[in-house]
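task queued by scheduler; priority normal; single chain, no ligands, no partner chains; default sampling; output format set to structure tokens
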Amino acid sequence: MRQTTTISKHLLSRFSKLCTLSLFLVAILTIANYVIHISSIISLILTIAILITLILIGLYLLRPVIIEIEHSLQERIETLEILDKERASLAQRVKERTAELTTANAELARAARLKDEFLANMSHELRTPLNAILGMSEMLQEGIYGNLDEKQTKSVHTIEESGRHLLSLINDILDLAKIEAGKVKLDIIPVSVPSISQLCLRLIRQLAVKKRLKTLSNYDNEVNIIQADERYLKQILLNLLSNAVKFTPKGGTINLEIVGDIEQNIVNITVSDTGMGIAEKDMEFLFKPFVQIDGGLNRAHEGTGLGLSLVYRLTELHGGSIYVKSQIDKGSKFTVSLPWKEINPDHMKQSPQIISNATILIVDDNPKIIQILSDFLETITDHIIIAGNGIQAIEKTKEVQADIILMDLQMPAMNGLEAIHQIRKYNQTIPIIAMTALIIPGDKERTLEAGANQYLTKPLNLHTLLNNINSLL
């Protein structure tokens, strides 16, 4: 802009000089013509000579300006060329960076997929033997294979207890991985808070008795049904109560209190203890995964450090919040606040009675699982049919009219998902319960979409399975 202004000034200066000279020469010619009275031909020749002279003088005067304009144009051309090169270079860098980001995103997606596959495979490999261990121990305690003496019963109970503990650790790791990946979907249904609370208290009562802990509970009569995921609400309560038992010394007290806040439409579930307490400096680490306050090889308490992390994330998924108050050597108080909308308990689904003459088709390629399921179900019905893969399942459903199908998903020849899809082409009414030890994100949705009525993960709780069968018959 400054260079253009300078050129304009130079042009005006040269042009003004040229105009002044032109006026001066025209004046001389006019005076000479008036005084001397030269002829018209000479006057014309003089005029042409003056014009030529003016043109030459003008070219002479304008020459530096023209040169300056040429230099300015050349500089502009060079500047534009540099800008073009910069733009091309920038475009290339953007392209390269985009390619790098695309590659990085692909690697991240691949890493996430491999992590999911690893967790799913490890889950399958761990759950499959656990399913056999827990199933067999449950049936031994039920006396299906004969009565056990007191010592045998105690040993079998220890096996089941250890298996359940291992299963809970596996579930915690898998649940946290799914939550972190944003792949957990809550199954929101009407849930009885007092029933869930009493169940959780029963589950931790044996551990509390061993440590001579006093367990107290206080329920608000106004609080009955809330909208929540039943499984995850139980996990929240069980994790808080288990932590209270774990960190409370012998002879201490654990209290579970449920209070409704009508004005804010929330239910406050508080678990308090008289345990070791939590230092203020440790509060920031309280809800981080794989972190234990008494970490290290010499720690006094077992566990993975996932319990409170899961409580925090599951509470958030429910749209709730969690508050902690604690003092060293005086105890801790954890309050989970969840949205509350009272629902008529009559609307809750009731479980129908067992139908003893039902024909049940068990589809699984694992002989141990088949033995466990058939032995257990034979105590209820004599009509049990076995299929070892999806192809056999299709053949059996065409040969015999089964009342319900228990379908494993991972099988050779034809997997359970494809078998369900094929069965639904000619039979839309038969209830199908899908069973799997390989938990893959989105697997439940795909299975239900294929036509399964329910989706259960192994190890199976036999009584839970029985309740699910009853609900579908």
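post-processing summary
- The longest strand covers residues 253-261.
- The chain has four domains: 2-97, 111-180, 190-347, 360-472.
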